[in-house]
Amino acid sequence: MIRFEQVTKCYPDGTVAVDGLDLTAPSGRTTVLVGPSGCGKTTSLRMVNRLIEPSSGTIRLGERDTAGMDPAELRRGIGYVIQHAGLFPHRTVADNIAAVPRLLGWTRRRARARAAELLELVGLPASYADRYPAQLSGGQQQRVGVARALAADPPVMLMDEPFSAVDPVVRARLQQEFLALQREIGKTIVFVTHDIAEAVTLGDRVAVLRVGGRLAQAAPPHELLTRPADDFVADFVGRDRGYRALDFAAPGELELDEEPAVVLGSEMSEARRAADGGWVLVVSAERTPLGWLDTGAQRADGEIGREHLVLGGTVAEHGGGLRELLDAALSSPSGRGAVTGPDGALAGSVTPEAVVRAIGAARARSAAGAAS
Ligand SMILES: Nc1ncnc2c1ncn2[C@@H]1O[C@H](COP(=O)(O)OP(=O)(O)OP(=O)(O)O)[C@@H](O)[C@H]1O
Question: Which SMART domains match (predicted)?
């Protein structure tokens, strides 16, 4: 756990970057600091590893006051990831990742073995070990930056806008990889971003700061979206917050409808029977949804091929939020959203009407929760 207790940072020119910050970042969880430019996010983060010294207040790591710790020792227990990855340009990927273990006195062999393990963990091919940073894409460099921060297996990670410098598609992928990785490694992470969508996607807790370095609200994403503490937070969180909040609302009692499906390569006549003249979902041999088939539009008989499929329509994953279910239902040409189980196989479908009813139920639950 990291605890900020009445932490203030006043720069020598009189700028108050952080003002009386009280905040706890729980162990094994991701706490995101978010807010407009200049609100003191980076200053707050860098005070944790003492790249910046607080003017007053205390920052504790576990029970220990960081002010009393040797800064070098403190930093060895804290991984640090920054925008543009900050890799050493003249060192190979493996040597970049192995930098901290080498400082800790690991043998070259052990450090290289660890680098290979981490490359795999962040989803890069082993052959990249001998490349130089300039030979990698921006997204790959960020993965190496994450691997480097994890090298000595620190319990704490500080991440300062790590995904901001890459394009939106790569960014979305890095965010999903981050979530999967964090589920596996369970580090205590403080993550800085100016992007509220990123904050609510990645954070177990989200702390919204306002300019002047004052905490406006710290709460789990769902609470932030549904119960913003004041106008500033409501405004910052944005207009479509109701829709975003659906990501975090559990589907509750929403039951899936049984969805008849035909396997790719089956006869068209079978699809017609299953669909009763309308749309039918086509699945792989493993029952993974592949696309929808409009049997009313098919004149010829023969095998169902990929060329017959309409690929529009997202698939909602088992355990996803109501937003994902609503998106699947609304984007499906049949009006039924396909839902898969944990193994990726078709579990059933939902109609937009059923999802809207579940949204109503979730709202009622949330209101009851707020009232109690
Ligand atoms: N070394 C410094 N000397 C004086 N003022 C500084 C210094 N570093 C930062 N500041 C100021 O402190 C305030 C907070 O800066 P900080 O970088 O922590 O904000 P931030 O929320 O991370 O901003 P951004 O999202 O733009 O990176 C800003 O007004 C900034 O100009």
Answer: AAA
ipTM of the complex: 0.95
Residue linked to tokens 């040409």:
333
pLDDT, tens digit, 9 for 90 and up, residues 270-317:
999 888 778 999 999 999 999 999 988 888 889 999 988 887 778 888
CB of 88 sitting under 6 A from ligand 1? no
Q: Provide the residue count of the chain.
A: 372
Determine the atom of ligand 1 nearest the C-alpha atom of 209.
21
| Domain boundary assignment for the chain | 2-248, 261-358
Q: Give the architecture (CATH level 2) of 261-358.
A: Roll (3.10)
Please check whether residue 31 is in contact with residue 205, taking contact to mean a CB–CB distance below 8 angstroms. Answer: yes
Ligand 1 and 39: CB distance under 6 A? yes
For the whole model, what pTM was predicted? Answer: 0.74
- Which superfamily does 2-248 belong to? P-loop containing nucleotide triphosphate hydrolases (3.40.50.300)
User: 208 C-alpha to center of ligand 1: Å?
Assistant: 16
